[in-house]
Fold this sequence. Notes:
The protein is α/β, with parallel strands linked by helices. Helices cover about 30% and strands about 25% of the residues.
Amino acid sequence: xxxxxxxxxxxxxxxxxxxxxxxxxxxxxxxxxxxxxxxxxxxxxxxxxxxxxxxxxxxxxxxxxxxxxxxxxxxxxxxxxxxxxxxxxxxxxxxxxxxxxxxxxxxxxxxxxxxxxxxxxxxxxxxxxxxxxxxxxxxxxxxxxxxxxxxxxxxxxxxxxxxxxxxxxxxxxxxxxxxxxxxxxxxxxxxxxxxxxxxxxxxxxxxxxxxxxxxxxxxxxxxxxxxxxxxxxxxxxxxxxxxx
Length: 244
């Protein structure tokens, strides 16, 4: 399959083309422009680099959340439009899954994807990385969640996981918290992989597509944005204010 992958979930816009799992073109852009400004030029350049066009693709993969509300809508809308015009399936990929897959690890280790949700809150996913038949397999060991970084550290300690590799822009915003509370258990992925590799989304998308028997699920009308909301922070009531 020739898959066009799109990610606008966080600050970096990423696009890639993969053919049968091999990356043939990939572009990441992190500048002051909005995703709405930089996404389509990046896609045009992507195809130009390999002398191909949208009509050549077999599917579109798009990172559809969690992440930035505005960014996710831009990426998903673009993916729907491209898939519709090219008459190909469009497959949503969870942001936390693709970040975890980008964090290459060797042997039996744990991976934690974290996306900055401001005020030390993060969206997170916890994974166990194992080697099966010579291939690395990631398994989600807890449901996706959203909570303050301090609480996430306490949750991780309960797993007694040993070393755990962190990836995502939540690391950049909260690394001091993780380092202080987790100590030697805390390991950061290499800087070059910290914000993910969009080409990894294609591998996840292809796996999802091949496992699903009802291919009608991969139409532009079925694709939606996955908003994993952070818990509301309650504000104490003013004791001098009458309730009514």
